[in-house]
Amino acid sequence: MKGTRIVLALILSCGVALGQGTAVESQRAMVDEYCAGCHNDALMAGGFSWTELDVASPHENAEQAAKVIRKLRAGMMPPVGAPRPGTTELKALASALEMRVDEAAAASPHIGVPDLHRVNRTEYRNSVRDLLGIEVPVTELLPPDSRGGAFDNMADALTVTPALMHAYAQAAEKISRNAVGDREVPPAMSSYNVQRVENQMRRVEGAPMGTRGGIVVKHTFPADGTYTFNIDLHHWFTGEIIGSRLVEPLRDQEIEISIDGDRVLLLAVDPEMLEENGPMISDPVHIEAGQHSVAAVFISQFDGPIQDQYRLVEHTLVSTAIANRSEMTALPHLKTLSITGPFEVTGVSENETRGRIFICQPTMGEEELCAREILSNLARQAFRRPVTDVDVDRLMVQYEAGREGGDFETGIRTGLQAVLADPEFVFRFERVPDDIQAGESFRLSGLELASRMAYFLWSSVPDDELIALAGNGGLQTADVLEQQVRRMLDDPRAETLATNFARQWLRLQGIQDLVPEPTIFPGYSKNLGESMRREVELLFASVMEEDRGITELLTADYTFVDEVLARHYGLPSVLGERFRRVQLTDPNRFGLLGKAGILTMTSLANRTSPVARGKYVLEVLIGSPPPTPPPVVPPFKEAVENQKPLSVRERMEEHRENPVCNACHQIMDPIGLAMENFDAVGKWRTNDAGAPIDPTGVMFDGTELDGPLSVTRAILARSEAFVDSFTENLLSYGLGRVLDYRDMPTVRSIAGDAEANDNRFSSFVVGIVKSQPFQMRVVRSQSVDR
Questions:
Q1: Which residues contact 570 (CB under 8 A, 6 or more apart)?
Q2: Which of the pair, 228 or 577, is modelled with greater confidence?
Q3: What is d(CA 712, CA 692) in angstroms, rounded to the nearest whole number?
Q4: What three-state secondary structure class fits 477?
Q5: Cα gap 12→27, rounded to integer Å
């Protein structure tokens, strides 16, 4: 424990806080005066009595001590309206309790016993990508993963069923066929859909310049041959194609099909489709095998920025009047791109993926030798360790079965399928040494540590450098270990910490399911929601890549926007779909709490939710969830037609008049109401229901709030709670298990070391990788809990 934590602990250790004799006597006096009046054996407020916890030896009831420390760090105790000592004294008490618990735990840190760890969908996709160089549609191949806590990589939640293993086997068959190629593959159709709520007025990322809307996908063509493209458009509910109500937009619309940026087809939107409502079918196009970027997009017909804006406004008004959805403009919208083939197969061309697989070519009489070399190379990377003759012999059985019914490449494809479905690829095995007994802990092997590091930082397999170092014992050296952590953080694959860890920690995955009421928020579209999510990920990534202090997530006076989001914020001079860093001038937009994605995600479809926003701040940013609501909660009074409109604050005040509701709401509501100037899609406003917004309030510890910026300041005043919450989540994600009170000494040790390094992002990662729970395991026994 370092920095301010230890200083605060020493305040009470010296008996200064209340001017009494010893530290323990001072702390007991504080507890008796401010806490024991409610938390006693008679009242048991919150189900807790201070007779259960001795401030002199809190480690004897470490579980309850962890709860007390969490409440003190958040400032949630003593409760609203009760007498309370000064903030310094409360923090010092928390530090003193932490110090005693941590000292007792130092001799035997909690290691934890995670279950057998299956790779989840994201990890499977990334592992295949790094092994074969292709993107696979895992959402189509594998079922969703269950969550444990906030994350989907928790070992306990990643259950295994026969149906799931069958899905992995089917995925392996499809991936291996696409990767190697197949001259005998029969024609098949693959379809890609564009949701109706996506705005198709602007260029899609990855599409050729001068286009709008449509879709860009990664599609794997299994063989050289001809393929056809089917295009289906969205229709009005009455049957006509979108755009048919205005003849002029439909008449000049063309759809471009491009492969890796090169146009291969240009299709005119056929007015006769107005009657048939059927798909447009292209002429056959010859395409070589391999994964290609396929775009089906409209040619932009606009002449310049003035005409663009005029047409956008015109068509938005038309479509809003018809469908109450501004994202559904009067121009045609792509619904489905279908790719059918191959026909007239001519072979399988060489490509990057085949180059990774076929590291040798068989000569007469040496097919088996080459096959062993290929499968050995694939297995070493997939199994994340050097392979044995037994491993390769097992895969050669599959090769021979495939070779018997086909040719050399058929055998390799069958062997690759076996690799991708092998438990060594699907599971992260950590083997127990023979001399270790139940209940004992042991250090992971270098290769197992390398695997943990790779799945922590990259959500994927370790690379050759990491495997080589692990194999020769290099990762056992602290300096080399830290060098590897920093190298891995500099690698582009570390972006997964933003797109995977941060997305889940900050609950950003919820944005994809949001559908704000279009009659109230006509400017919202799926595209805008995606831009909101990406903005927060890029903010997190910038803090990570520039190795800044993590509290900058709360205070950053810059952000990342594309044209869609910039327009939403009212930021000028941002055009196109490319995100760029911009300087902010409005302090209310600084940091996480100024981001539209978080503000939208903590709202309802038709209004803001001060409760959800307050709960988010407490649970996600401070790490202290509010109390569980009682079983029967009176419904919140929503706006009723033909009644006097009430602001959200007015309806909240009515709701809180019920004593059953007030106990929880007085903790959450002031925080959420202070953010009421942001509407349900994160736009700034000054009125609600015709009345000026009142963002003032008082937090549970007496902190006065007067707007979004004051909430950020309140969190910064509890920076230890924010840092501990971040560390706890990152450690849980890195270990792949839900933490409990026994892990909190490790959390505080990592956070304390990082504080000594200005809370730089890399310090937390290095601290986690060097920690005993990350480097060790304990053998499960009936006397050893998880």
A1: none
A2: 228
A3: 22
A4: coil
A5: 7
- Which residues lie across from 396 on neighbouring strands? none
Name the DSSP letter for residue 315: H
What secondary structure letter does DSSP report for 582? Answer: E
Mean pLDDT of the chain: 87
Please tell me whether the peptide bond between 78 and the residue prior to it is cis, using omega within 30 degrees of 0. yes
Would the pLDDT of 611 be above 80? yes
- Biggest distance spanned by C-alpha atoms of the chain: 93
Q: What SS3 state is found at 228?
A: strand
Q: Which residues does 93 contact at the CB level (< 8 Å), separation at least 6?
A: 12, 17, 27, 30, 55, 72
Q: CB neighbours (10 Å) of residue 225?
A: 23
∠ Cα 179 180 182 (to 5°): 115
Choose among 371, 400, 375, 397: nearest CA to 387: 375
CA 667 from centroid of its chain's CA atoms: 27
Q: Which of 443, 456, 470 is CA-nearest to residue 384? A: 470
Rounded CA separation 487/474 (Å): 15
User: What's the confidence (pLDDT) of residue 242?
Assistant: 65
- Please report where in the chains the tokens 């079918």 appear, as a residue: 281
- pLDDT at position 701 is 85
**CA dist., res. 129 & res. 650, Å (int):** 53
Q: Is residue 488 a contact partner of residue 467, using CB atoms and an 8 Å limit?
A: no
In our burial notation (b when 16+ CB lie closer than 10 A, e otherwise), range 592-614 reads bbbbbbbbbbbbbeebbbbbebb
Tell me the CA distances in angstroms from 691 to 476, 685, 687, one per residue in order: 64, 11, 5
Give the amino acid at 59.
H
Amino acid at 138: V
From 275, 273, 259, 263, select the one nearest 299 (Cα to Cα): 263
Strand pairing partners for 255?
267, 298
Interatomic CA distance for residues 691 and 452, integer angstroms? 55
Tell me what pLDDT residue 372 has: 97
Task: Please write the tens of the pLDDT for every residue from 447-468.
Answer: 999 999 999 999 999 999 999 9
Q: What are phi and psi of 370, to 5 degrees?
A: -65, -40
Q: Which DSSP helix (H) or strand (E) runs through 262? A: strand 262-268
- The gap between the terminal CA atoms of the chain, to the nearest Å, is 25
Structure tokens at 144: 């969703």
Q: Are strands 262-268 and 441-443 parallel, antiparallel or unpaired?
A: unpaired
Mean pLDDT is lowest, of 151-155, 608-612, 626-630, 676-680, for 626-630
Please answer whether residues 376 and 387 qualify as being in contact, where contact means their C-beta atoms are separated by less than 8 angstroms: yes
Q: Of 446, 455, 601, 549, whose CA–CA distance to 761 is shortest?
A: 549
Q: How confident is the model at residue 208 (pLDDT cuts 50, 70, 90)?
A: very high
> If you search the block for the tokens 């709008």, which residue do you land on?
212
pLDDT tens column, 695-728: 999 998 889 999 999 999 999 999 999 999 999 9
CB-based burial, 281-310: b 16+ in 10 Å, e otherwise? ebeebebbbbbbebbbbbbbbeeeeeebee
What whole-number percentage of the chain has pLDDT above 90?
Answer: 63
CA distance 108 to 772: 10
- Residue in the structure block whose two tokens are 């393929």: 227
Strands, E assignment, 60-196: 117-118, 188-193
| pLDDT exceeds cutoff 90 at 81 | no
Tell me how far apart the alpha carbons of residues 100 and 308 are, in angstroms, rounded to a whole number. Answer: 66
d(CA 782, CA 45): 34
- Joined together, the tokens standing for residue 616 give 């988010």
pTM higher than the cut 0.85: yes
Each residue of 499-521: pLDDT tens digit? 999 999 999 988 888 889 988 99
Total number of residues shown for the chain: 786
What dihedral angle (degrees, nearest 10) is formed by the CA atoms of 352, 379, 733, 172?
A: 70
pLDDT for 774: 96
The strand pairing partners of 121, in sequence order, are none
Task: State residue 648's pLDDT score.
Answer: 77
